[in-house]
Fold these 2 entries.
Entry 1:
Amino acid sequence: MRDLLTRVLHREGVLARLPTPQHWRRFLALLPPGLLVKTAGFALHLGGPSEIPGAALAFMEDRIVAIEIEDLGLHIQISARSGRLHLGAEGRAEVTISASTLDFLLLATQREDADTLFFHRRLRMTGDTALGLQLRNTLDQLAQDLLPARLRQELERFTDLAQAAQHAYRSAGISRARPASPYQ
């Protein structure tokens, strides 16, 4: 059904008229940063509480990781305190992980792995790479249970739409925030 809807939207030219991430970036810049962090925290709990075992996060206790969604201009810092993830951590990040919206969606839905994106220069890591790799390995081990089922389903749908929209943008000659990698 989703595939049929995506094909119809593409055929009718609707996808190419959807706002690009650059358009959303302008809108998001107008919002208070705290609102974005609270919204992200709420989204993680849509399907009910989804706990990461406290021992799995011990290596991140009181350490800060920054996530940069480049095409949206978003910078979110996360840390672990008392075995729980906290969004909006204050202070200097020890490692920064950067990618586009679509690439983070592909990671979250496990349609792409971090190594592939990294080697194709679509995922970047600066700072304490050992911390970043340990976080990646932990998330890979917990990936199936990390997101509530309802959120996982919506994420899959949104990723389908984002991929179809990107294809439509390219077909229509609409540019992206950064040049496409030669490996895509």
Entry 2:
Amino acid sequence: MRSSVTALVLVAIAAGGAWGQPSHAKKEQPKVMEVPGTALKQPALEVALATALKDNPDLKVAAAKLAEAEAQLHRARLQVVQKVVSQQRAIEQAQAAAKFAEAQFRRIKSLHDTGAVSKEAMAQAEQQLATAKANLANAQAEMSYLLGKPPGKSGAAVAQERLFADLLAQEHYARAFAVVVRA
């Protein structure tokens, strides 16, 4: 019974019958406009919208501003990548210099303890070690700034952040290289 009612409704809809409407009611057809250069006809509103979206000067200005902002963002990202990579190299150099200064200081201290080196040489080695450690701390602080980290962390947090910074620098460098290669 149910399927026969459904079939009757489908037949009525397919035949175009509409209950409650007079048969002389006509559907209002949208005005059509011929698109220049084509044999196609489209409703006038669609043509007007398409033309407005294509030729509106406000939209063209907004698109130009968006493109400029995207270019500035891209340039800023590349600059940050360059700074992080450069700073990572500076940290590595400062670490090597601090390690060398530490070894020199130990060597001179042992020689000073035996009396082979003067107190002035010992003080000079100590000063070189302090300068190397200060340079390393400055390089690490600059990296923290570049990574947006607050200053003053120490211990395991710094070691973990350094590892993360190394990975981040490598990832950014790889992304920057991929962007340059695609361009």
